[in-house]
Amino acid sequence: MKLLVTGGAGYVGSVCAAHLVETGHEVVVLxxxxxxxxxxxxxxxxxxxxxxxxxxxxxxAEGFDGVLHFxxxxxxxxxxxxxxxYWHGNVVxxxxxxxxxxxxxxxxxxxxSTAATYGEPEQVPIxxxxxxxxxxxxxxxxxxxxxxxxxxTAAHALAATSLRYFNVAGAHEAFGERHAVETHLIPLVLxxxxxxxxxxxxxxxxxxxxxxxxxxxxxxxxxxADAHLLALQYAVAxxxxxxxxxxxxxxxxxxxxxxxxxxTGHPIPAVTAPRRAGDPAVLVAAxxxxxxxxxxxPSRTDLERIVGDAWAFAHxxx
Length: 318
Fold this sequence. Notes:
With 318 residues, the protein is an alpha/beta fold. The protein contains ten helices and 14 strands. Residues 4-246 form the NAD-dependent epimerase/dehydratase domain. It is an enzyme of class 5 (isomerase).
């Protein structure tokens, strides 16, 4: 298939683009490089530099079999402080993409959504049927896009899938996490091992969890990419399918730090800090729907494997 990958110079987009190229698809990456990296576009993919809302129509006019949509702002704190960036950069740009998809009769869409659409969970593991009550503009913007996609599939026979990620981690052979502002736990801990950060902060050690620290569901980025290929394969015209992507198991902050110590051989000092407002104690995905309907089950679930791949990439880039 000929596929457009928006945001394909970013972390998840570049890894998914690499998987698509490796499996024989013709890939075009559209990215404005505001947070992505030109050298993250995989060999074999054609690169178009441009802002999503402005450029999508011209690119899709070439004729495509599908779009994988990763381009987005994704910093929770920034979304609270500057919500206008998220309503415009995520929602307005995605609306323009959907209009371009409709105008050029592009039949498939896979959207990079997030577990942040659920907000504070009422039950754990979290199923796709859980109430969606996002607690920040980032999650709200992604949920708004999900609603837009649902309306387009019903009205225009688009075959669409939204994949709600939990905590993406790890690295592909050549592509991994490189954020100007890093907020994810594993790369922050690895920065301590690399000597670019003095210590890692543990936000609260009195949560109602086995060791008192927050528990999260970590999904290897290569497993995530596998799910995107399956989503393309099983998309049905006129249907908008939503799937959680997680391992179905949780690891605490302390367990992640210990795994990083084991993998890197560094002591990695940890400092207990006050809880952060809005942090749920436990976030774990229920992945039954993806297993049953897509035949997807993550295979790279060992925490030290996830950390090891991230460490190999970070060490190489240091």
